[in-house]
Amino acid sequence: MAAGGLVVSGQTGDISCFHCHSKEVNDFQESIHFNKDISCTDCHGGDIKISGEVVSINVMHTNFTGVPSRVNMTEFCSRCHAEVTNTYEESIHWQRLKEGRVEAAACTDCHGTHNILSSKDPDSQTHSENIPLMCASCHENQTKMQAWYYGISTDRFDTYKKSYHYKAYISGGEVLATCSDCHENHDTRQESDPKSAVNQANLPATCGKPDCHQGANNAFIYGGKVHEGQSVYLGFIDAKKLVTYFYIIMILFEITFTIGLIILGITSNFELRRRH
Ligand code: HEC
Ligand code: HEC
Ligand code: HEC
Ligand code: HEC
Ligand code: HEC
Ligand code: HEC
Question: Which atom of ligand 6 is nearest to 139's Cα?
Answer without folding.
Answer: 35
